Amino acid sequence: xxxxxxxxxxxxxxxxxxxxxxxxxxxxxxxxxxxxxxxxxxxxxxxxxxxxxxxxxxxxxxxxxxxxxxxxxxxxxxxxxxxxxxxxxxxxxxxxxxxxxxxxxxxxxxxxxxxxxxxxxxxxxxxxxxxxxxxxxxxxxxxxxxxxxxxxxxxxxxxxxxxxxxxxxxxxxxxxxxxxxxxxxxxxxxxxxxxxxxxxxxxxxxxxxxxxxxxxxxxxxxxxxxxxxxxxxxx
Length: 235
Fold this sequence. Notes:
Blueprint: E1 6-12, H1 19-29, E2 34-39, H2 46-51, E3 56-59, H3 65-79, E4 84-87, H4 96-109, E5 113-117, H5 129-146, E6 158-161, H6 162-169, H7 178-187, E7 192-196, H8 211-234
Parallel strand pairs: 1-2, 1-4, 2-3, 5-7
Antiparallel strand pairs: 4-6, 5-6
Helix pairs in contact: 3-6, 5-8, 7-8
């Protein structure tokens, strides 16, 4: 794994109370990886805490959403010829040691999209009923429309290979979402693998997945599912 060129992308918004520890733990487990924080103009101490480390950071207005943040990481990974892009959320719910094992798995399996799934074994985090229903519906639609089975289609821990990154860069219509990239990888006949990763309960901040946002999230993802499958049929 030491021979691989790794980029770790961390989207953040108001993670000032924990981001320093997250970055420290990542550095302990990924000694040669480059770290790129993409912050949504946090109103707390996130920027200040990141600047205490040697991690790279760029700020993108929150109005553009998580999708543009990860797309920025994908563009950076392609431009700088990284072998793998590792996405880790900045809230500390994923243990960097678990993510390191996931990367080893991705390299061993030669996987193009590797997903850390909280549902392949017992995880510390238990989604509420609304979120769990949404995940079940989305993964059922992915199975029906794309003939692809995944257990955790909304995981915030994903690893992209250089091969997949290049394909995404060449697609001017690509817009990132956890579900969208699964559909895109499936459409491109890329290898998709899952491995269990423990997800911890959130220690700081508040989840944005409330009733209103859950409907917006589902609408956007169902639209992505239908748009990409329609595009595939046309081709």
